[in-house]
Specification:
474 residues, alpha+beta, FAD/NAD(P)-binding domain, D-Amino Acid Oxidase, Chain A, domain 2, Arc Repressor Mutant, subunit A, 8-stranded mixed beta sheet, 5-stranded antiparallel beta sheet, 12 helices, 22 strands, globular
Length: 474
């Protein structure tokens, strides 16, 4: 079969593009080198829906950010992912920083950011009592918010599959050739897919994919951001996303309330060469806490339950979303760093229109259904609702993850949705994300995976790609 479109990469942009295309009568394939979707940049970022004030409106990314921000309310109704418009504050700690905040405010007004407000010290502390009392003023953007990015991608994937999109995981593109108006794309294990059009949404590896197809040459530079994750019980938990005043290369060390109640502090911003370097260092993590305490003094290292790093694909000052001028029927979606998560639904629309301009015939699919099932979560149920579920399925009464209140039934649901690794189950259910970081529930999850999938114990992995959890025998 020849697909109409092959999308390389199943991060938040690739899957948004796939879902948008699924609303038309086109055959779409998504090719992903990892074992699951959202295992690249999309799984390790700040999880912020930006407020359309950080960037000048001359950039494409600003327009896509503004459009994408407005799309999340309807998307949540359709896909039921964790999302909340908690608002964003940019806090100035001196008069010089306040001048920058005033510029951001004017930029936000030009971008028509909804409800944006310039605050004095009193108003800033009213909006966010966790702020340092050294604050002299702030910008407040009520349209900003927080999201679980991996749950968003999983929901997009489920919707896309429901509407006919095919996903091919463990498909690392190694070769491509164009003949008879068709691309033939080969994986490193010998599989091949044919498609009339190709969208390169490969994140950190978009430059390498472009080279494979003989398209434009460019270099993606990984920018590492290290984070601390704080326990739900932390007294430093803010109501709003708190930004410091940004620098030229970074929006600074943020203090971020997550949708599920933990707190993120970070990220750093360090350009590196290795696209697989997710290491963290004590020096950088100490820097994160020191900088974070300047805007939220109650931050405490004793609340830390995890640290991690994410890599942003840096290319140009703006997003690089263009049709290739060198090879036919090939679209670049590259350099999608911040505010890429916010812009991603709009990127789906933009790339669909770009494909149409390149000759892809788009006929609306009258059977398209944007809605997916709103699944129950044990932690969100009252006792009566929980008891009713247990009557029908006792697995709802077996709490596998005590920290996050995740039941066996939810683990099984995750596996049935195709998430058979520890990380895939973690991102789908939150099991292993609590205070003990999987110390008590991992072995239970492994047993359920073995039972439900038929995998052997030595085939269980953290995230595929030779990340086996158990090896050898006693």
């Amino acid at each position: 079969m020849i697909h109409d479109v092959a999308i390389i990469g199943s991060g938040v942009c690739g899957v948004n593009i796939a879902r948008k295309l699924s609303s038309f009568k086109v055959k779409v394939a998504v090719l992903e080198k990892a074992i699951d979707v959202s295992f690249g940049t999309s799984k390790a970022n700040s999880g912020i829906i930006h407020g359309a004030f950080h960037h000048n409106k001359k950039y494409l990314k600003t327009h896509l950010e503004m459009q994408g921000n407005l799309m999340f309310t309807q998307l949540q109704k359709e896909l039921h992912f964790p999302f909340r418009r908690c608002g964003i504050i940019v806090a100035a700690l001196n008069d010089e920083e306040m001048k920058t905040v005033e510029l951001l405010y004017k930029q936000g007004l030009e971008n028509k950011a909804a409800g944006i407000e310039l605050c004095d010290k009193k108003r800033a502390l009213e909006l966010e009592p966790k702020l340092s009392h050294n604050v002299v003023g702030a910008l407040y953007a009520p349209g900003g918010g927080i999201i679980e990015p991996y749950r968003f991608v999983f929901a997009l994937k489920e919707s896309a599959i429901k509407n006919g999109v095919e996903f091919f995981t463990n498909f690392k593109v190694s070769k491509a050739c164009y003949r008879d108006s068709t691309w033939e794309i080969y994986s490193d294990n010998g599989e091949s897919i044919k498609a009339s059009y190709v969208v390169n949404s490969a994140g950190l590896f978009a430059d390498e994919v472009s080279a494979i197809f003989g398209a434009e040459e460019y270099k993606i530079t990984p920018r590492k951001g290290e984070y601390y994750l704080l326990d739900k019980l932390s007294i430093s938990h803010p109501d709003k996303v708190i930004f410091p005043v940004p620098s030229k290369v970074s929006k600074g060390m943020l203090v971020i309330p997550t949708v599920e109640g933990t707190v993120l502090v970070g990220p750093t911003a360090e350009d590196i060469e290795d696209k697989n370097d997710f290491s963290t260092t004590k020096d950088k993590l100490d820097l994160i806490l020191d900088m974070g305490k300047k805007i939220v003094p109650s931050l405490n290292e004793n609340d830390v339950i995890a640290s991690f790093a994410g890599l942003r694909p840096c290319l140009e000052e703006d997003f690089y979303i263009k049709a290739s001028k060198i090879v036919p029927s090939f679209i670049h979606v590259a350099g999608i760093q911040s505010p890429g998560l916010t812009a991603s639904p709009a990127i789906g629309v933009y790339v669909t229109e770009l494909l149409k301009s390149q000759g892809l015939k788009l006929e609306e699919n009258p059977a398209w259904d944007p809605y997916i099932e709103d699944r129950k979560r044990a932690r969100e149920l009252n006792s009566e609702e929980h008891d009713e579920l247990i009557k029908d399925d006792p697995a709802w009464g077996n709490m596998v993850c005590r920290c996050e209140n995740v039941s066996e039934a939810e683990i099984v649901q995750s596996i049935k949705q195709g998430h058979s690794t520890l990380d895939g189950i973690k991102y789908f259910t939150r099991a292993q994300m609590g205070r003990c970081q999987g110390g008590f529930c991992t072995y239970k999850i492994i047993k359920i995976i073995i039972r439900e999938t038929g995998l052997n114990w030595n085939e269980i992995s953290k995230h595929g790609n030779n990340s086996n959890v158990l090896t050898g025998e006693l």
